[in-house]
Amino acid sequence: VTGITAGTSVITYTLGTGCLTTTIITVNPLPAAITGITAVCVGNTTTLSSTTAGGTWSSSNTAVATVGSLSGIVSGISSGTAVISYTLSTGCLVTTTVLVNPLPSPITGITSVCAGSTTTLFSTGGGLWTSSNTAVATVGSVSGIATGVSAGTAVITYTLGTGCFTTTIITVNPLPGA
To answer: 140: helix, coil or strand?
Structure first.
C-alpha cells in the first residue's frame, strides 16, 4: 500500500473464489518542508523550522551536527554532512541535509607592530583578510600583510568563501618621540 494523500481508504483482498476481506488504512500527512539555512560553520549554529507543530528534531550524525530535539537549532561540530529529520508522533518525517563547513586554520604570525611597519599574518584556505579598524591597522586582502597606521588595536579577520572565519587582535605600538 502506498500513501498518496492524507486520509483513509478501504483496502480489499479478494480470493479467486470471490471471498474477500477488507481493512481501513489511514494515510497520515507529512510535516511541512524544513526551511532555514542548511550550511553552518564548525562551532556555529543555524536554525531550521517546519510550519507543522509538534514534531521532534534529530541528526543522523551527531559527530558532525547536533540539533535541539524541540528547537531545531543545529550546531556544527565537525566538517561534513548530516541529515536532519523532523518527525511527527505518527512517524511521518521530512529531512534535509546540513553541510558543516570547516574553519580556516588559526591566524599565525607576529601580532604586534610599530606604527609605519608591517608584519605578515598567515592562515589557510584561500580566504580574504580584513581589518576592523583601518585607522589603526590595514591588511592586504589577499597577502595578509598588516601595516601599523596608528597606536591601538584592531581585529584582523580571515574569511573563507563559505563565510567561515577566524580572527586575531593586532596591536600597533606608537613610535618613540624624536
So the answer is: coil
Q: Count of H helices and E strands in the chain?
A: 0, 16
pLDDT band at residue 125 under the 50/70/90 scheme: confident
Positive or negative, the CA dihedral 149, 151, 155, 158 is positive
C-alpha 160 chain-centroid distance: 14
The string of pLDDT tens digits covering residues 126-139 is 999 999 999 999 99
**% the chain with pLDDT above 90:** 92
Residue type, 112: S
Pairing state of beta strands 7-14 and 112-114? unpaired
Three-state SS at 122: strand
Burial class (CB in 10 A: 0-12, 13-18, 19+), 81: middle
Give the cell for residue 138.
Answer: 590595514
pTM of full prediction above 0.90: no
Residue count (the chain): 178
